[in-house]
Amino acid sequence: MSRVVQAATGNLPFAIRQYAPAQLRAALKKMYLIRRFEEGAEESYARGLIHGTMHLSIGQEASAVASCLELTDQDKITSTHRGHGHCIAKGADVGRMFAEFFGKQTGYCHGRGGSMHIADVKTGNLGANGIVGGGLPIAVGAALTAKRQGKPDVTVCFFGDGANNEGAFHEALNMASVWQLPVVFICENNKYGMSTSVERSTAVARISDRAAGYAMPGETVDGNDFSAVAQAAHTAIARARSGQGPSLIENLTYRIRGHSKSDRNRYRTKDEIESWVAKDPITRFRAQLVSHGILTDEDAAALLRQAEAEVAAGIEFAKSSAAPDVADVTRYVHAEDAI
Q1: Residue 152: CB atoms within 10 Å
Q2: Is the separation of the CB atoms in 149 and 111 below 8 Å?
């Protein structure tokens, strides 16, 4: 009898075997929160409440949440211009995020940074970054700090497929490998760097193949499969935390929206977009949890309502927050004005 049970357990998806039901429900809630946050941001932009531009990660929620599932506040992340999901996955408050979008004093960077520059050092979020590949050397620096201080902290570095052709990518991977640093490089390959497909810009078939050039493990997974992402991240984080050095993970995913709000989407077909909508990571993860008895359809609907309520409250918080005082325009430039 025990053999049958073990065999059945062994056939379960990694996430179902590895994590407690409460953790899995919380993960689904965060995925809902990211999706509703970005939809709320999109609507706020259309209403003129947000200026500039933004880069939405709708369709990439599994990559963010599953990759951060085992991280603590002492562990660090570096993010990208498409980093809202990473921020929320690492514990950011959506009210303060909306306030930052709206340019309000209560935002994470007191309204100075906007969508592409949200940071929260208290939770280990070293910041989103408007520079393609800009987070890669920062992640190596954070990992070097942890190693020199003898701490077990791990740094997870998110970047897009476009960054894998930047010099910073190669320099960062090489240095991390030479010094055996506790960093996990996670490429969110959503097929396009702006409007250029990865097939046209990158010589190797898989970005993870480049790990071999730097003597580290490389793995490509279905980035819309929460369990597959969680398993790859689990292995890489454990390796880094035990002192064995860096890893490179490539999450194959897709941004349902355009590159930014100014993207007219002329380089993608309707059929391609619809084929990826059918692979929605939230729908897949929710179905997996229901099929394995982790929650019911009613439970999932309740989690969605909670996420919607948090987003609505966050928008109201941002609307009612004060704008920065013009007299403080030079504040928060230097380190003594801590954010």
Answers
A1: 14
A2: no
Give yes or no for a contact between 172 and 201, defined as CB atoms under 8 angstroms apart.
Answer: no
- Residue of 47, 118, 40, 37 whose CA lies nearest to 79: 118
Cα–Cα distance, 318 to 104 (Å, whole number)? 7
Q: What share of the chain is helix, strand, coil (3-state, %, to 5)?
A: 50, 10, 40
Neighbouring-strand partners of residue 188: 160, 251
Whether 217 contacts 178, CB under 8 Å: no
Distance CA 249, CA 239 (A): 13
Cβ neighbour number for residue 47 with a 10 Å cutoff: 8
Query: Euclidean distance between the first and final Cα of the chain, in Å?
Result: 58
Statement: the pTM of the whole predicted model exceeds 0.90? yes
CA distance 115 to 27: 23
Mean pLDDT by 10 residues, the chain (339 residues): 38 96 98 98 93 93 98 98 97 97 95 91 94 97 98 98 97 98 98 94 96 98 98 98 98 95 91 96 98 98 98 98 92 68
DSSP code for 82 = T
> Which residues, in sequence order, are CB contacts of 93 under 8 Å at separation 6+?
314
Q: Are strands 155-160 and 183-189 parallel, antiparallel or unpaired?
A: parallel
pLDDT at position 205, please?
A: 94
The number of residues in the chain equals 339
Q: What are phi and psi of 130, to 5 degrees?
A: -75, -10
Give the separation between CA 135 and CA 182, rounded to whole angstroms: 15
Distance CA 52, CA 132 (A): 18
Element (H, E) at 144: helix 135-148
Q: How far is CA 5 from the centre of its chain?
A: 35
**Dihedral (Cα; 110, 98, 302, 11), 10-degree rounding:** -80
* Separation of alpha carbons 61 and 63, rounded Å: 5
Distance between CA 128 and CA 85 in Å, rounded?
Answer: 10
Pairing of strands 192-193, 196-197: antiparallel
